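Progress against Task 2.4 (sequence-to-structure conversion) is shown through the following example record, which the project officer requested during the mid-term review.
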Amino acid sequence: MLGLLTAAAIAACSPPEGTSALLERPERVIMIGELHGTAEAPRAVGEIACAASEQGPVVVALELEDTLQPKLDAFIAAPDEASALATLEGSTLINRAVQDGRTSQALLDLLMRVRELKLSGRDIGLHLFQPSSLSRGEGLDQAWYELNMGYLLSQARQGRPDARVIGLAGNIHARKTAFEDYPDLGVPAAGHLPARETLSLKIAQQGGFAWNCSQDACGVNPSMASYDAEARGVILGPLDGGGYDGVLALGPWTASPPMDVKTGR
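Structure tokens generated for the chain above:
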């Protein structure tokens, strides 16, 4: 009985306001577009995935190199937290030439959250969809990269057609329509998925700070406030000319530094 109670406590979910209505929608892929390096975005994705896993199978899709998939599979399957963290040592999750905010401490917390949910008995897993080679090749622009990313993202859905996919990516990749001002970008990754099955939310900029890269260096940078400061939760409605299906308002951001597996959480 104690083990069951412990599992239930671990699996308790705290999703943003409006998540219940979001999960009642028919779309099977929910993409969440972020600016990298905040504490709030990965936390929200983890809790939305938690709530979704109460209803059925879930795949959490992340903008990380697909070559890291075996590492993260081993992380999920590890028998204890120390062993799980040890699987990440020496990987590009830790040793990155450019710390652009994608591999933040908050991202590690999200990975740990998925692992906890899996251990509690939920049908939940991870899928990585960043093309492992950052080179687009001579004569190939960003549009080809987005196409490749969209293909890898589609495998999360096709590999588990019974599951709801909850994805986290930079807000450009999570957009569903092309930018007219940037023709080299083409159709973003999420736009290559079937429109009727894909819902995309853009995380609102409400001030605060993020760990990301500016023209000068990577580190803690202020975020502009361009959305209602009081709004919170999932707010559905077309945004940016149909590029997104709504907003996820999480309040002012807190910068999350690069992950450190030695300290865990």
